[in-house]
Write a structure and sequence with these properties.
Helix content is 35%, strand content 20%. It is globular and about 35 Å long. Strands 2-1-3-4 form a four-stranded mixed sheet, with helices on one face. It has one domain (19-111): Glutaredoxin, CATH 3.40.30.10. It is built from four helices and four strands. It starts with a helix and ends in a 7-residue tail after the last helix.
Length: 118
């Protein structure tokens, strides 16, 4: 390996990476609305354009919050869906309002995200 290629490889490995959008679902085992979301949407969500743009990340609200999500505040009940990208919250859906309202509200939040450049 040449010195240039070693430096180039080192720069690639240490360069900051862009974080993709995520839809974080705060849930709990005893939440009937979480169970309803699971029955109605859990299987289809990852196959949708919305699910591809903002993959679902599930977080048990009764457990210690992961360090990278500590900036998300005021989660008092479940489910709460929080759209994040690059450490910033772009919107949230408190509760599960049913399938039709969920998709509409999620679409509005996704419209707030910066444009994806390929």
């Amino acid at each position: 390996m040449t010195r240039f290629s070693a430096l180039f490889l080192s720069a690639l490995l240490t360069a900051p990476t862009a974080q993709a959008a995520e839809l974080v679902m705060f849930e709990s085992e005893i939440c009937p609305w979480c169970e309803l979301w699971d029955r109605e949407l859990a299987a289809v969500y990852p196959k949708t354009p919305e699910g591809k743009r903002a993959p679902l990340r599930r977080v048990d609200n009764m457990m210690k919050r992961p360090d990278d999500l500590k900036f998300i505040q005021n989660i008092r009940y479940t489910p709460v869906f929080v759209l994040i990208e690059d450490g910033k919250e772009y919107g949230r859906i408190d509760g599960y309002p049913g399938e039709d309202f969920f998709w509409g509200l999620l679409g509005e939040m996704l419209d707030e995200l910066p444009e994806v450049v390929n």
